TrEMBL record:
Topology versus the membrane: Peripheral membrane protein
UniProt organism field: Luteipulveratus mongoliensis
Keyword Transport part of the UniProt annotation: yes
Protein name per UniProt: ABC transporter domain-containing protein
Primary localization class, coarse: membrane
InterPro entries: AAA+_ATPase (IPR003593), ABC_transporter-like_ATP-bd (IPR003439), ABC_transporter_ATP-binding (IPR050763), P-loop_NTPase (IPR027417)
Entry GO terms, CC: plasma membrane
Chain segments annotated as coiled-coil in the UniProt record: none
Biological-process GO terms, alphabetical: response to antibiotic
Length: 258
């Protein structure tokens, strides 16, 4: 990020608690424009809660979130107009067909009707859904639902894409199509922040990343800086402090030699 440039996503001192549990604890993160930014961490680290606060789905107890300089809470319309969001466990209007859903979302986003029609067909083709465009979303598989959710996030050409586990339940062919789309989107000036549990995917796809543990960013930077000469998987395990499980208590799982 160049000096003085407004980040695509700027999170400052986010805090969120649920009863006695603090899910996010003073988290700050700046995502430069034009980056493909990975957010990784163990289960329960606060990644989804962070992205929910970043996109206006969840109000922080403390802190701020801004999208290209637009505060998510004081200027929600301005911020959300610049975002495309694919939450984890996305709920869609699944009694519409895929084609109808994209038309609905595009018009809701104030995209001209003719442009919506063109982009709908292009997105269905790119994501391998054209043959299922008239199928109700409720009848889609988990992977197809993920892909139509991504199409909905893209149809209004946002400046920032926020993706929570975008490759979950997606087959390898579709996964490669999504990677190609994301690289092209970033290459044309867009910005992506995505969370994933798959370290190899983040390592290959993202140029910058942050590791979140216990609701805080413990390290961030370029992928090479974060890896520090190791594989991302090993670097992650070292930071989390994971020890190998002792299998002796599961001796009953071993096959009998009789």
């Amino acid at each position: 990020m160049q000096l003085g440039e407004v980040p695509a996503l700027d999170l400052r001192g986010l805090v969120k608690s649920f009863g006695p549990k603090t899910a996010v604890n003073g988290l700050s993160l700046q995502v430069p424009r034009g980056s493909l930014y990975g957010l990784v961490g163990p289960n329960g680290a606060g990644k989804t809660t962070t992205l929910s606060m970043a996109t206006g789905l969840l109000r922080p107890d403390v802190g701020s979130a801004a999208v290209v300089g637009h505060d998510v809470w004081s200027d929600p319309a301005g911020a959300k107009a610049l975002m495309g969001v694919l939450p984890d466990g996305v709920r869609l209007f699944d009694r519409l067909s895929g084609r109808e859903l994209l038309r609905y979302v595009g018009l809701l986003r104030s995209v001209p009707q003719q442009v919506v029609a063109e982009r709908t067909e292009q997105l269905l083709d790119a994501l391998g859904l054209h043959g299922d465009g008239n199928t109700l979303v409720v009848d889609y598989s988990a992977g197809m639902t993920k892909k139509i959710g991504l199409a909905c996030a893209l149809i209004h050409t946002p400046r920032l894409l926020v993706l929570d586990e975008p490759f979950e339940a997606v087959d390898p062919v579709s996964g490669e199509a999504i990677r190609t789309i994301l690289r092209s989107y970033v290459g044309s000036g867009g910005t992506v922040i995505l969370s994933s549990h798959v370290m190899e995917l983040v390592e290959q796809l993202c140029d910058r990343l942050a590791i979140v543990i216990a609701g805080q960013v413990v390290v961030q930077g370029t992928t090479d800086e974060v890896r520090a000469g190791q594989s991302l998987q090993q670097r992650f395990l070292d930071l989390v402090g994971v020890q190998a499980a002792d299998p002796r208590g599961l001796s009953w799982l071993q096959s009998s030699s009789d």
